[in-house]
Amino acid sequence: MHKSHPPSAAPATAAASDPPALKLAAALQLLRQSGRDVPDPSSLDRVAWLQAVVDGLCELSSRDPLTGVWNRRQFDVALTGEIDRVARAGEAALVLMIDIDHFKSVNDTHGHAAGDVVLKEVAQALRECIRPMDTLARVGGDEFAMILPNCPPSFGHVVAERVRMKVQRRSVEIAPGESINVTVSIGGAFAPQWVRSSAPLWVERADQQLYLAKQSGRNRACLEKPMVSLVSAEEKGLLFGTSQYQDLE
Amino acid sequence: MSSSDNSASAAAAPPAKRARIIALTSGKGGVGKTFMSANLAAALARRNLRVLVLDADLGLANLDVVLNLHPKITLHDVFTGKNHLEDAILPAPGGFSVLLAGSGLVEYSRLTPQVREQLVGIIETVAPRFDIILLDTGAGISDVVLYSVSLADEVLIVATPEPTSMTDAYATIKVLATHQQRRAIGIVVNQVSRVGEGRAIRGQLQLVVDRFVPAMLPAGDTAPKLELIGEVPLDGAVREAVQKRQLLLEALPGAPAARAIEIVATRLAP
């Protein structure tokens, strides 16, 4: 019965016919403001249209508006999911906490608009480092985080260094003709193979490494020592050597 | 200050006595760790020590099964604030106390900042009331195990002569040396089939530790020293007691394994 209304009139009409608690008008305005496509209510049936609006809102509430990467909320959801996956599959996963060095002085020297450009450019540099299965999020003012599933401990340093270099090499144009370079400090921790841990403790371990990276001069990556729980063939060889259980005392 | 002043103040305020906290861990499951915790507690209790065994596996241990206890109030109820800690401390058959986590509480079998805080708080609260607290940790090398071991003053690794058990014991020693800077680790070898086998296994583990672990430590740090606390023979009486769901020390105190556990207790608390 709303088919004759132009799409722009849809919010008010839809809101009027729904319980006021649904706040559809506000929802549609939020979606439009964020530059997302608002589905045309006449092109879909009512349920499909509502679903599209809900999907849009979910996406909106999971993204950082400035940089477009996931936000803290979505990061926490992904991290908890990853803990469950590691516990089941037993593959190591890496969390990186990435903090822009001296970000405050960028804001103080060049202004907040320049600070926003730096955040967007760093986000873009980080986006170029990740695989489709990875999660990149902005988790604080100048702090980003990455979840890298299925990342063996032996690859950790290479991955973290690649991220660090990618940011360092990117020239950020904060004003026409004025470019600066920023660096990041990175802290990383692996979810060990037999994990009965929880998301906050995993992040806490990565944060400790980030603190170390900052303390030791910034623009560097510190990773928690991976568990040494694997026993090599060489170690087993000696443990069960030719003279098995030989009394050595 | 004269020595008489010192003794006077010591008499007025005796130094706070706190339990020795000993973690029993193994790497591999099924080596008799919980059996050892319970019977060792009984042996220590016979030496007039106030002993508490805490299910530090947060509900995945079978301490309740070994002791044939059906607790109404568990660590879980203390964590959630439903009950007081006092009501969860139960008397066990061997003359010691237990704090059980209750089985199958999967959501509490994971370490969270809250559980971590609660656990350390509980241990600090009960420590002044006991002489020895045994932490019966879980199998494997999980965050839960490593955290509960980190709360202990001493670590006792329970191993058997099985190659898989020895490998996992060695892996555990490596992790404790590198992540917790442990410099002394006790070993109890369970299910030995000949006298002296425990000593040989300790020697072999020490050999591999000395060869490989120093390279994993910061320069100048020394590899942990392994100390054989005792060996317990393979003994049919153990199976008999476990099936009756009784402590070996209560059911068959004269059995060779029971006597060996008494010796372990003597070494731990001379």
Characterise the protein shown here:
The complex is a heterodimer of chains A (249) and B (270). With 249 residues, chain A is α/β, with parallel strands linked by helices. Chain A folds into 2 domains: 18-31 and 40-61, no CATH class; 72-246, Reverse transcriptase/Diguanylate cyclase domain (Alpha-Beta Plaits, 2-Layer Sandwich), CATH 3.30.70.270. Chain A is built from 9 helices and 8 strands. In chain A, the strands form 2 sheets. Chain A has a 6-stranded mixed β-sheet with strand order 1-3-4-2-7-8, with helices on both faces. A two-stranded antiparallel ribbon of chain A has the order 5-6. In chain A, a hairpin with a 4-residue loop joins β3 (135-138) and β4. In chain A, α2 (24-33) crosses α3 (46-62). Mean pLDDT of chain A is 86; it is low at 1-15 and 243-249. With 270 residues, chain B is an alpha/beta fold. Chain B has a single domain, classed as P-loop containing nucleotide triphosphate hydrolases (Rossmann fold), CATH 3.40.50.300. Helix content of chain B is 44%, strand content 17%. An 8-stranded mixed β-sheet of chain B has the order 3-4-2-5-1-6-7-8, with helices on both faces. In chain B, α9 (197-212) links the parallel β7 (184-192) and β8. Chain B starts with a helix and ends with a helix. Mean pLDDT of chain B is 89; it is low at 1-12. The chains are: A alpha/beta (249), B alpha/beta (270). Chain A binds chain B through residues 192, 194-198, 200-201, 204, 225, 227-231, 234-236, 238-241, 245-249, and chain B through 109-113, 116, 138, 140-145, 161, 163, 166-167, 170-172, 174-175, 178-179, 196-197, 199-201, 203-208, 211-212, 216.
